[in-house]
Amino acid sequence: MQTRVCRLYAQHDVRLETTELDEPQAGEVLVAMGAGGICGSDLHYFHEGGFGPIRVREPIILGHEAAGTIAALGAGVSGLSVGQKVAVNPSRPCGECRYCAEGHPQHCLNMRFSGSALRLPHEQGLFREKMVVPASQCVPLAEARGLDEGATSEPLAVCLHAANRAGDLAGKRVLVTGAGPIGVLCAAVARHRGAAEIVVTDLHDRPLDVAREMGATRTINVARDGSEMEAYAADKGWFDVAFECSAAAPAIASAIAAVRPLGRLVQVGVGGNIAVPLNALVGKEIDMVGTHRFHEEFAEAVRLINEGAIDVRPMITHRLPLDRLDEAFALAGDRTQAVKAQLVFS
Question: Alpha-carbon Rg of the chain, whole angstroms?
Answer without folding.
Answer: 20
